[in-house]
């Protein structure tokens, strides 16, 4: 299934794509794509519904973040071999940081440059959406706790991330710095989550062209690893790292500016597109 949320910010309704790619309204069955809806039982209930029986949503709709009521937006740094550098520089354990949940935005919403942010940058990432509570789970059973996957753009300001001291969260958490979606694809539709091509373009120029098979720490390991330190709850999102090609790593470095357009996607999970705008 491809589950999504549509409508005005803060008032999104739950929806599903039918086999023709048309948007159908799920609000007669669930209140949101969140919480218990993401559990194995909740997803089984949705899978039993014939999408053709659901109301067709007319017109062009804004898509919001594909998951609602997110309690944690956790991310992994330097998790791609080409991005992390030579093997002797690879992390021995996952590098973890948070993005504020207030950074979440829709996949086609504008990315708003924060006031004074000197080096805004892009990162296409695989998002893992938790479906059931995970605490001290082992790697062999970790994917049992996953509802599905989505595209995440881990927009980051490198000046605030790397040059202002403290934690990375300050460079990762501005409003609109977490475009997520366009939809949550349930894990049964993904044959091999560790073999998904991904890309990101800025103004039509491709900068990132990678594959989830290049991760240092795979999805199952990350879910298990995180669950040793914190309890993952339904709707939590894990952004699993980005391949080579971010702006700060180019020669010379390239950063986002007002008017730039980003297009990014992951095979089987859809595409996003954002226009960068100045803070208003």
Automatic annotation (TrEMBL):
InterPro entries assigned to the protein according to its UniProt record, in alphabetical order: FAH (IPR051121), Fumarylacetoacetase-like_C (IPR011234), Fumarylacetoacetase_C_sf (IPR036663)
Keywords: Hydrolase, Metal-binding
One GO MF term: hydrolase activity
Gene3D superfamilies listed in its UniProt record: Fumarylacetoacetase-like, C-terminal domain
Record-annotated Fumarylacetoacetase-like C-terminal domain positions: 72-277
Any Pfam family hit: FAA_hydrolase
Similarity field: Belongs to the FAH family.
Protein name: Fumarylacetoacetate hydrolase family protein
Originating species: Lacibacterium aquatile
